[in-house]
Design brief:
Strand 6 and strand 7 form a beta hairpin. The chain starts with 9 loop residues before the first helix and ends in a 6-residue tail after the last strand. The protein has a seven-stranded mixed sheet, with helices on both faces. It has a five-stranded antiparallel sheet with strand order 11-10-9-8-12. The protein is an alpha+beta fold. The chain contains six helices and twelve strands. The structure holds biotin. Biotin binds next to helix 2, strand 3, strand 6 and strand 7. The site of biotin (BTN) has 20 residues, from helix 2, strand 3, strand 6 and strand 7.
Length: about 270
């Protein structure tokens, strides 16, 4: 971890990171448009793997599928990590692996009720707690991924009207830990999970992911480029796609899109 790290307790962060500390160079920003956007620019200018941008606030935070991502100082943990993969790595299932690492970190910190919603939402007691936005850059000797993670720590009064879905924050379960502990634990879990992912692919993580599948067996709707599909949520398969089951026994494999719970669904 570099010493260029203002405004966070470096000693605490280093202690939490433990053996993973040399893998990360963490920079803390009071504000930026989006840590993903900034890290993509830094990566294009040759930033090295492990660079992590942590921002107190983002003026143009981005979510998946072109949506915006709301955050506020004290209410959010928002950061992006640059990671390098070799040509041999298959990136299928990467976003699920990252969500899993975040869930494991929260569990290591003692949080109960943590779940995952395919492909990469982190849930707490049935509501969205955070999300992952991964953006890829392809180069001559491999791929780089900008891995952006946003978590709600506390509820912000203005979010209720602006976010179009049920969401929650860590404070609903317990007092959120200091961000050095939260960030350090997530990065430590991320390093461990990405090492398994690079070596053996998502197949080696799928059982751990499926144990936390918050919507398993529930009626869902998937909106993807190929249209809308309805069915009962099955498991994440070894390649990271999701199995959808209809009540006549048909199985559909979904590899991209948005999943939502669909309680009124006539199948
Ligand atoms: C989603 O659920 O749609 C993904 C949300 C990802 C938000 C994080 S916050 C840090 C990073 N910077 C961004 O602009 N987006 C990601």
């Amino acid at each position: 971890m570099s010493s260029v790290c203002f405004g966070v307790d470096v000693a605490m962060l280093r202690a939490v990171l433990g053996e993973a500390a040399p893998l990360f160079a963490i920079e803390h920003l009071e504000s930026c448009d989006s840590t993903n956007t900034l890290l993509l620019e830094r990566a294009a200018r040759g930033a090295t793997a492990g660079l992590t941008l942590l921002a107190d606030s983002q003026t143009a935070g981005r979510g998946r599928r072109g949506r915006s991502w709301l955050s506020a100082p004290e209410c959010s943990l928002t950061f992006s990590v640059l990671w390098r993969f070799t040509h041999r790595s298959s990136l299928v299932g990467l976003s699920l692996a990252v969500g899993l690492a975040v869930a494991q970190a929260l569990e290591d910190l003692g949080f109960e009720g943590v779940g995952l919603k395919w492909p990469n939402d982190v849930w707490l007691f049935g509501r969205k707690l955070g999300g992952v936005l991964i953006e890829l850059m392809f180069g001559q000797d491999g791929f780089q991924a900008v891995i952006g993670i946003g978590l709600n720590l506390r509820m912000h009064p203005e979010w209720q009207d602006s976010i179009g879905q049920a969401f929650t924050a860590l404070e609903v379960a317990a007092v959120p830990p200091p961000r050095e502990i939260l960030l350090g634990t997530i990065l430590r879990c991320l390093a461990r999970t990405l090492a398994v992912f690079e070596r053996d692919g998502f197949a080696a993580l799928s059982a751990d992911w499926n144990r936390r599948n918050a919507l398993h067996g529930l009626p869902v709707r998937v909106c993807s480029e190929s249209g809308e599909h309805r069915g009962f949520c099955g498991s994440a398969l070894q390649d990271g796609s999701l199995e959808l089951l209809s009540n006549c026994g048909a199985r559909l494999q979904i590899s991209g899109g948005d999943l939502s719970l669909c309680l009124e669904m006539p199948l």
